[in-house]
Amino acid sequence: MNDKYYMKKCFDLAKKARGKTLKNPLVGAVLVKDGKIISTGYHHEYGKVHAEVDCFNNLKENADGAVLYVNLEPCSHYGKQGPCTLEIIKRNIKKVIISNIDTNPKVDGLKVLREKGIEVQTGLLEDEGKKLNEKFFFNIKYNRPLIALKYAQTLDGKISSNTNDSKWISNEFSREYVHRLRNDYDAIIVGKNTLIHDNPSLNSRIEEGVDPVRVIVDTNLEIEKNYKDYKIFNLNSDKKTYIATCKDTDNPDLNLIKCKMKNNHVDLEDLVNKLYEMNIGSILVEGGSILNYDFLEEGLVDKIYEFISPKIIGGFNSKSPFYGRGVDKIKDGYKFEIEDIKRFDDDIMIEAKNVHWNI
Fold it and tell me: Which domains does the chain have, with CATH numbers?
């Protein structure tokens, strides 16, 4: 076993908290002494103890002279928890090996540890660590949630037929992966038309899955009259369903996010900022072609998960994933780069990243 083995162990521990840390990072910690793992820990959820402290809390023996592996630079400031650097120093740790430096300007853990004579090594499996915490690093750099679109389309680029039928374009294995995505994102957004036509639940139906906060974009609060007919308002879930709207209501059963209006619709940038203030660090948009394009046009699409099924449906009035003004010249198209391609039986999924951001 070597340094990379222990750091990958940190990554695996950190992943246990997917969907639970909100704007906090995913962090795992492994303590090694005399070539043996003597304790492990991770940041379980937002507001709870950090990975390093959890690791020390699980310790059953003396840690003097041990090496601590942690995928993110230990914090050195007071927030909801105290500085992890103090606990590391107190435990007489000899060396700390880190994957990623924390880009939060409040954190200066490397300097604090080195001033106390603790050896610090950084950059171990750095790219893998960045991918694990891309939402966190994005939040710190751009001060807003990372926003991804998810849709399923046919080989001829259609997300629904002439009659608005879309169940099911993708297969069951693709849909299972979508539930994992929902588990990983803090909030999920759809438009009122998707709610009316599909009546989705928008929860995470995997074992020990974490439901996202659910948001319906409905500028004029048109669904208020029949809201009880929709599954999303009758879920047994620990997360709320909100309506993003420009209208008011006296109905105490509805949770509204009152937004500014832009071009006679909910101002999506205002909505995103309000969700960020609610501690939402990542958003998955599962809307139709109009909402998808609105997010794209506002510069609010950072990632795309495009599921492609080997079907062709044709049709003059069948819908494509993006419906809007569009661009006049190919050179002016919105540019993305492919990060990953997965296969789910006959379906494939393309994960693409907007070229205009980096961490």
Answer: 3-128 (3.40.140.10), 144-354 (3.40.430.10)
Q: What is the dihedral of CA 197, 202, 206, 212, to 10 degrees?
A: 170
Integer angstrom CA distances of residue 135 from 79, 197, 222, 224, 347 = 20, 31, 33, 33, 26
Helix ranges (H only) for 228-333 are: 268-277, 289-297
pTM of model > 0.85:
yes
CB 55 within 8 A of CB 63: no
pLDDT of amino acid 77: 79
Contacts of 21 (CB under 8 A, 6+ apart): 43, 45, 46
Residue 151's identity, in one-letter code, is Y
73 annotated active-site: no
Binding residues for Zn(2+): 50, 75, 84
- Annotated catalytic residue within 52, 73, 134, 306: 52
pLDDT digits (tens, 9 = 90+) for 266-320: 999 999 999 999 999 999 999 899 999 999 999 999 999 999 999 999 999 999 9
Amino acid at 173: F
How many other C-beta atoms lie within 10 A of the C-beta of residue 82?
Answer: 14
Average of per-residue pLDDT across 134-144 = 97
Q: Can you say which residues are annotated as belonging to the binding site for substrate?
A: 166, 182, 202, 205, 286
Place of tokens 């490397």: 110
Per the annotation, binding residues are 50, 75, 84, 152, 166, 168, 182, 194, 198, 202, 205, 219, 286
Q: Are 78 and 96 in contact (CB under 8 A)?
A: no
